[in-house]
Write a structure and sequence with these properties.
By secondary structure, the protein is an alpha+beta fold. It contains 15 helices and twelve strands. Helix 6 packs across helix 12. The model is unreliable at 348-364 (pLDDT under 50).
Length: 463
């Protein structure tokens, strides 16, 4: 979160990205869009303010469809459809059930990290070392329940950062985090406390942590050490990005869909108010006196049979034609959002030749696959820092999903088969491709055994 009770200096990139993050967060939380009133649904020409009854009616009839949230949920399910694998030893096995100290396991946390990357293109993993007095043995770690934790921070919480160059390498030298903590007051109520946590390297290159809070308590300074009681010479904080995992903010993958979702919502407001105003049939009459109307029209409009009009009078019901402009705009945006969602999984291009298909497939990587790889790489670094404190082998974390089957291109399949038939690639390579996209799942031995009893079409002499 970004509460400003404390003095936070925002990084310029953070300030520039904040508006997009807020839109993405609102679009993935439907009630937040309506709660924002004029921020996402502007006043019409005849609305004086957001308190105007006409605007309130306009707002209440608008329908926000959850395209953004459904897309995020779908991508998340696709990314983790085959689960995760975590290899640990006894000292780090706890991360499967409690990686952050709050009872969240690494699989659950990694899903939250992926969600943040899809929504904001940004997140961070902070490996927090518990304070110790010098070297701590494994026996002491177990007896005192001391273990390093990995904490996930969303884009809003990483407010500032800086790096320093040592030789040709860029080293993270400072990260400022904003987070919420909760305490119980003397009256027994729960109160939110905003904490500013600064991770930094001192002049000698050693890592330290400063904590400030808005409850007027003294600042706290920590000097974390590894399992040997030595201070760290690096900051155990690892950025996750949509493009790569450096400190720079990447574009949020879901933004184009979220932006269209908000525009769709605005069209919906116009469509719904138009439907309300013109959908009801409008009775009309001519040649009637007020006294006749008062005496006769009431019962008729309540459904009391036929109406005998006075001589020279006329009566009818006017039904306006539907205004489909807003609906057409909504349908257009809906189709565009579907196409954008597909693009996050695979760039569905067309090719003129099989060679173009092979070249494009070799160089193309879906946006979702990039996010999966970035999450895995960030956890790989975090596990290394975790092992520094625990004095153990670093756990190995992988997301098992292979998107090849989802991204399978029929043209590429034809090109691979054509290359095999022309003798350009061996049969095993063709089968490996078919296996990778889910066309076959048998081993080479099983296939060869079957082929031994089968005449290949290429070897048949029948005419």
């Amino acid at each position: 979160m970004t509460d400003q009770a404390l003095n936070f200096d925002w990084h310029p990139q953070y300030a520039a990205a904040l508006r997009i993050w807020e839109l993405n967060r609102a679009a993935s939380t439907p009630m937040a869009v309506k709660d924002a009133t004029t921020k996402y649904l502007p006043l019409a020409a005849n609305h004086e303010s957001d308190k105007d009854p006409r605007y309130q009616a306009y707002l209440s009839r608008a329908v926000f469809y959850g395209f953004t949230q459904e897309t995020i949920s779908g991508l998340l399910g696709l990314a983790f459809r085959q689960g995760v694998t975590v290899d640990t030893d006894n000292a780090t096995d706890y991360i499967n059930k409690n990686i952050d100290g709050d009872g969240i396991g690494i699989e659950q946390q990694s899903k939250a990290a992926m969600t943040n990357l899809i929504k904001y293109g940004r997140a961070g993993l902070f490996v927090d070392f518990p304070p110790t007095d010098g070297e701590v043995s494994k026996a002491e770690q177990e007896r005192l329940a001391l273990s390093a934790t990995v904490n996930l921070y969303d884009a809003f919480s990483i407010v500032d950062w800086s790096s320093t160059h040592i030789g040709s390498a860029s080293i993270l030298s400072r990260v400022v985090l904003c987070e919420s903590q909760y305490k119980t007051t003397s009256a027994g109520a729960t109160e939110e406390v905003i904490v500013k946590r600064t991770l930094a390297l001192d002049d000698e290159g050693y890592y330290f942590v400063t904590e400030e809070s808005d409850d007027n308590k003294e600042d706290k300074v920590y000097l974390p050490t590894n399992s040997a009681g030595q201070r760290l010479n690096y900051i155990p904080f690892y950025f996750l990005g949509a493009t790569n995992n450096d400190a720079n903010i990447d574009d949020a993958p879901i933004y184009p869909i979220a932006d269209l979702n908000i525009a769709h919502y605005k069209n919906s407001a116009d469509y719904e108010i138009s439907s309300f105003l013109v959908s009801q049939p409008q009775p009309w009459a001519t040649g009637l006196t007020q006294s006749w109307v008062d005496a006769n029209m009431g019962d008729f409009l309540m459904g009391a049979g036929l109406l005998a009009l006075p001589q020279g009078a006329a009566f009818g019901i006017e039904q306006t034609q539907p205004n489909m402009v807003s609906m057409e705009a909504m349908n257009h945006k809906q189709q565009a959002m579907i196409q954008m969602g597909a693009k996050l999984i695979s760039s569905n291009a067309s090719f003129n030749t099989a060679s173009e298909a092979i070249i494009a497939s070799a160089s193309e990587n879906s946006r979702l696959q990039t996010l999966i790889d970035n999450v895995v790489m960030a956890y790989e670094k975090a596990m290394g820092a975790l092992s520094d404190f625990n004095g153990s082998t670093a756990p190995v974390f992988t997301i098992d999903t292979d998107l090849s089957a989802v991204m399978a291109d029929p043209q590429l399949a034809i090109a691979v088969t054509d290359s095999w038939m022309k003798g350009l690639i061996p049969a095993k390579d063709a089968r490996d491709y078919q296996r990778s996209v889910g066309l076959i799942n048998r081993t080479e031995e099983e296939i060869e055994d079957d082929l031994a009893d089968t005449i290949s079409p290429l070897e048949s002499t029948d005419v």
